[in-house]
Each structure stands twice: as structure tokens, then as C-alpha cells.
Write the C-alpha cells for this entry.
Amino acid sequence: MKPDWQAEVVLEIPFHDVDMMEVAWHGHYVKYFEIARCALLDKLDYNYRQMKASGYAWPVIDLHVRYARPAYFGAAIRVLAEIAEYENRLKINYTIFDQASGARLTKGHTCQVAVDIASREMCFASPQVLYDRLGVEVDAEMGGE
């Protein structure tokens, strides 16, 4: 995996994200994934504004979360986002770690597909702009070497 294809953010679990047991509510983990995904897309200079300007929307079509250990109020967590697939969809893997101990708390992934904004049609292959932002030669990746 290329180092540019991953990004990390460190977040502190705020009070408004926890339940009465001071455990982060399960739905907020999706928000933590999104923050790391935006950091990754910023690194690639292809975040949501650049996607729109390129003529494509990239809706999330699949989301998976696996909770191993809870995150608690006030804890610092490190969220790692890594590109796993990009040819026909954009799959990003996420791992959330406790910053203090390094223990893995949660893992998951999202899948996004390109949708041509003008036609509102889903693309069955990722558009050239994604390959350009990733620094990938299309022919080499498609077996044309």
C-alpha cells in the first residue's frame, strides 16, 4: 500500500458522544470514520468539493463496523483510514485504536461508487480522475503491462 493512501486522525471522545455509562454510542463511530476519510481524501486532493467539481458524486453504498472494545468519554482515539480498493469502487478500511494503550477498539470499512452528476448514472468502473489522484497508471493496473 502506498503511504499516500492512508491517513490518521486523533480525536478525543466528547461528552455529547457518550451514553450514561460514558461509552461512545455505536452510531458515532461512523462519524469518526468520516473524519478520517476526509483527512485521507484531503491528502489526495480529492475530497467532496473536488469530487463534485470533477463531475462525480461518491455516495457510500456499504458500511461495515466491527466493535471489539469500547471507547470512553475523554479518551484519545487514533483513527486510521486506508484505501483498500479503487478500480470499480472506492473501499476504505478503518481501524480505531486507543491512543494511550494502542489497543484496537473498532474496525470497519465503507464502499463508495462514482455517480456521474450530470446523468445521475452509477459508473461501473472508477473514473480516470480517481486514478490520477491516486497516481495509478490505468493500463498497468488493468493488466496492460
